[in-house]
Amino acid sequence: ISGDSMEPRYHDGEILLVQAQEEVQPGALGIFVLNGQGYFKKLGKNALVSLNPRYEPIPIHEYDQISCIGKVIGILS
């Protein structure tokens, strides 16, 4: 993880465990590529959402290219 957008649950420098899958359910945490940029976020309705309330959701528009790399299932200790 790079940054603090998923705090307080996940912290900068942690390594995530990810289950590869092409889709996640709304509300699930996942790794996404949106228009060539990688994100670790919660999937919201038409947006990628940070757990840290200091960050605004990243809207997903109909013309955006988005793919799901996988579902976050934990942290590597």
Describe this structure in words.
Helix content is 0%, strand content 47%. The chain is mostly beta strands and 77 residues long. The chain has a six-stranded antiparallel beta sheet with strand order 1-6-2-3-4-5, with no helix packed on it. The two termini are 13 Å apart.
List keywords for this structure.
single chain, mainly beta, 6-stranded antiparallel β-sheet
Gross morphology is: globular
List SSEs in N-to-C order: EEEEEE
> What's the average pLDDT?
97
Strand content: over 45%
Which class best fits the helix and strand makeup?
mainly beta
Number of strands: 6
Q: How far is the first residue's CA from the last residue's CA?
A: 13 Å
Low-confidence stretches: none
* Main β-sheet description: 6 strands, antiparallel
Q: How many helix segments?
A: 0
Q: Into which percent range does the helicity of residues fall?
A: under 10%
Strand neighbour order, sheet with most strands: 1-6-2-3-4-5
Instruction: From the alpha carbons, calculate the radius of gyration and give it in angstroms.
Output: 12 Å
Topology of helices and strands:
Elements: E1 15-20, E2 29-34, E3 37-44, E4 47-49, E5 58-59, E6 66-76
Antiparallel strand pairs: 1-6, 2-3, 2-6, 3-4, 4-5
